[in-house]
Amino acid sequence: MEVKKYPIRIKTLSPIFIGSGNTFDALEYYNSPNPINVNKKPKKQLKRINFDKFFLSLNDDEKDRILSNVSDDSRYILEQDFPKINSEFYRYTIINECPESKDKFKSVISEHIKTMDEVYIPGSSIKGAIKTALFYNIVPDRDIEKIQNILSFNKYNKRYKINNFKYNNFIDYYFSTKKGNSAQKNIMRFLHVSDSSTEKYPRLYEILTIMAESKFNQPNGIKLYRNNKNPSKSYFETIAPKRGLDTELVINYDKDILEELEFSNKQKQILDIDFIKNCIYTFSKDLINYEIDFFNKYDQYHKMNELNEIVNNLIDFYERISKYNSKKNPLLRIGAGSGLMATSIAMKVKQYDRNNGTDIFDQIMGTFYKKYPYEFPKSRKILSNNENLPLSWVQLNFK
To answer: 216-234, pLDDT tens digit by residue?
Structure first.
């Protein structure tokens, strides 16, 4: 077996969010009155609390006070009753990049995945994003119409439905051979990506959602997603932009096993590092152009709208990072919004429909419970600050 190792330095170009699936509220953090210096600039900080340990240290009256206040006020914060919390109860520090406010921060936070209370990018997330880029490049246009085979039409509710078994088989066809069991037959088993190094301080950002808007099923600008007339806001722990993390891509090339399992030559090329980098480069180039086209298409409908600055910031961002993308050190979107359906398949099918006059994409959109009559994906998550960065973009610097 030939083992090839490729160290990679990941440079974050925008905040990265890989959710743990958990959230936490103001019972589990403390608004520190003291700023933390970041690049010689003072920043607000939150201290994540080990609430169980803290609660057990309290006397009965203090415990009752917390329980009573929590039941009366869902936005209760510990500082109301405990203006100073001993550092022995701190788990880690969160750098708070949310907009300034007179009130103390007390919103629910979506947690980034961690190890030993430090944030990182799982190898599985990196590998999944790479697989998306590979899929985009290896599926020939002539196979796009096969996507119709994974759809079935229900005449009672007049909706298309994706057959998950056929969908998985369609994806696996390009990565698998019929020989061997399911664990053996996928070419991606020979490619491994390690978890990245860790980052000590997660950054907390306020996140807005912008949505494509239609009128008579035609583009009609972009709007903020709102909840009760107010812009809907989320709060994510992230890995900040301009950070460097280390990972390693390992290719285990066993010629005898590959021959025994009868992988095709096209599948074997997936284990070539230059092919991998070229696929990532091409996919990201097209995805960046796709995003620029999206915002240009909808921007023309609200030149005097308050969102015009946000749209211009996003176009500027994508035009700027497009200059960093290269076959040697390609860009990649990791985490939120990097799935196969939202990126590879959506772009491939849209392009195929334009070139061939088909409506396969319309059929795919008909499978979603939410209606997408004019655009998919119709929404993007962005920072609420004056940069309005999107999430998830990195550059892979192969050493």
So the answer is: 666 667 788 888 888 899 9
| Residue type for position 253 | Y
Cis peptide before 390 (omega within 30 of 0): no
Shared-domain flag, residues 279 and 376: yes
φ, ψ of residue 320 in degrees (nearest 5): -70, -45
SS3 392: coil
Smallest CA-to-CA distance from 44 within 90, 4, 11, 93 is with: 93
Largest pairwise CA distance in the chain: 73
Q: Do 88 and 34 share a structural domain?
A: yes
- Say if CB 27 and CB 74 are below 8 A apart: no
- Would you state the pLDDT for residue 296? 84
Question: 43 with 129, same domain?
Answer: no
DSSP conformation class of 80:
G
Q: Are residues 37 and 63 in the same domain?
A: yes
Select from 373, 384, 396, 397 the least CA-distant residue to 213.
373
Parent domain of 353: 2-6+120-197+247-398
* Separation between Cα atoms, residue 8 and residue 304, nearest integer Å: 44
- Pairing, β 218-224 against β 151-154: unpaired
State the total domains in the chain. 2
| Sequence-distant (≥ 6) Cβ neighbours of residue 232 within 8 angstroms | 208, 209, 224, 225, 226
Length of the chain: 399
Q: How far is CA 338 from CA 18, 178, 284, 322, 328, in A?
A: 11, 28, 11, 17, 21
Strands 203-215 and 90-96 come out as parallel
- In-domain check, residue 219: no
**Whether residue 84 sits in one domain with residue 161:** no
Please give the pLDDT value at position 369: 46
Instruction: Quote the distance between the C-alpha of residue 39 and its chain's center.
Output: 26
CA–CA dist 328, 331 (Å, integer):
10
Mean pLDDT, the chain cut into blocks of 10 residues (399 residues total): 94 97 93 90 94 95 89 78 92 93 85 97 96 90 78 66 78 81 82 97 94 70 82 94 97 89 89 96 93 80 67 93 97 77 71 77 60 58 91 95
Quick check: 187 and 270 in contact, CB under 8 A?
Answer: yes
Tell me the C-alpha distance between 365 and 371, whole Å. Answer: 7
